[in-house]
Specification:
Largest sheet: 5 strands, antiparallel
Shape: elongated
Order of helices and strands: HEHHHEEEEEEE
Distance between the termini: 46 Å
Keywords: Membrane, Transmembrane, Transmembrane helix
Number of helices: 4
């Protein structure tokens, strides 16, 4: 009887930890940017398929029907892929330690990047990042963009796979830098 209670609470704790990981990982996509062309998605899917095949094969004595095996495999692929999907972003966030500053041309887009299904930031700071080799859009506000500004200075922490943008500041039309603004995730 005691073993059944312990197993139940172990499953509850593991499920709670999984939910916390999913919620934490979903917020990473607003702060961490991976390099273009990185094979991270395919690697995560391949790991999910291999883990699911191994677990399904291991349970072959308990599961005898092919339909049940297929459903077990598909459920495990989905669960493992959801768990591993944001691992590359987490890796970049915690391994990015080299500070880099760059100066790029930008444009302001309205509305900005999405915050939720129905909300967007007031404005989006859009630019092309040479190191990441992809376009980036950060949340900003119209009131902090000086008139005639065409250049922005960016401060980011980089790792081998991506970057975390930390601060930005606009350069006025005559080249005078404005104050630094933190890159914050969009507020809901």
């Amino acid at each position: 009887m005691k073993s059944g209670k312990m197993r139940f609470w172990l499953y509850v704790v593991l499920f709670a930890a999984w939910i916390i990981w999913i919620l934490f990982a979903s917020r990473l996509s607003h702060k961490v940017y991976l390099q273009a062309g990185a094979p991270d998605t395919l690697v995560m899917l391949a790991i999910a398929v291999l883990v699911s095949l191994l677990a399904t094969w291991h349970s072959r004595e308990k599961v005898t029907r092919n339909k049940t095996r297929l459903l077990t495999f598909l459920g495990l692929v989905l669960f493992t892929a959801m768990t591993l999907w944001n691992v590359p972003e987490a890796w970049v966030r915690y391994s990015a330690n080299q500070m880099v500053r760059s100066e790029v041309a930008f444009s302001i887009g309205h509305p900005g990047p999405p915050v939720s299904k129905s909300k967007h930031c007031e404005a989006g700071l859009r630019f092309y990042d040479e190191w990441l080799q992809r376009p980036i859009e950060l949340c900003t506000r119209d009131v902090i963009v000086p008139p005639g500004a065409q250049t922005v200075q960016l401060e980011k922490r980089v790792s081998a796979r991506g970057a975390v943008f930390t601060h930005y500041r606009f350069l006025s039309a005559n080249g005078i830098p404005q104050g630094w603004w933190p890159v914050s995730p969009p507020s809901r």
